[in-house]
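FYI - complex with adenosine-5'-diphosphate, inputs then prediction.
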Amino acid sequence: MKRAIFPGSFDPITLGHYDIIHRGVTLFDELVIAIGVNSDKKYMFPLEKRKQFIEEAFKDEPKIKVVTYEGLTVNFCKEIDAQFILRGLRNPADFEFEKAIAHTNRKLSEIETVFLLTSSGKSYISSSIVRDVIRNNGDYTGLVPNSVRI
Ligand code: ADP
């Protein structure tokens, strides 16, 4: 059974995440969307809300599970027997950042990171930009799945 996790904060899930999940699920038997909980970080949306947005967006896809986790991603992978980490790449900055994390994860474990390049037209979308639009009362609906409503 090929199981991958797609870790992130998803504060909130965007159409960029949606695209990577939608394409990534075809590569694995199960894709676990893993919402990382970091008690030092301040989030716009509470954990339950972030989870609900993702569950609702993928309610018709049985291969997708949504969970929350704390601590090192590779430890969580071992816990749930996931052999792969899925990540999205938008630009050179993502590549440099992800490269360091993937090398570190390889050093700590046998887990392979699989990268998917963002679809054209989605590379500018990030959760931080969406939060900025929301904070300033802009129309965020074209940047997120329909399940994200405030
Ligand atoms: P983190 O809190 O780890 O930064 P994010 O929720 O921002 O997590 O992102 C999780 C994953 O989704 C990362 O691999 C990131 O590169 C990817 N991602 C985010 N936005 C996009 C996008 N627009 N296109 C492709 N991948 C994306």
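Residues 8-10, 14, 16-17, 20, 87-88, 90, 94, 118, 122-123, 125-127 surround adenosine-5'-diphosphate (CB under 6 Å). The first strand starts at residue 3 and ends at 8.
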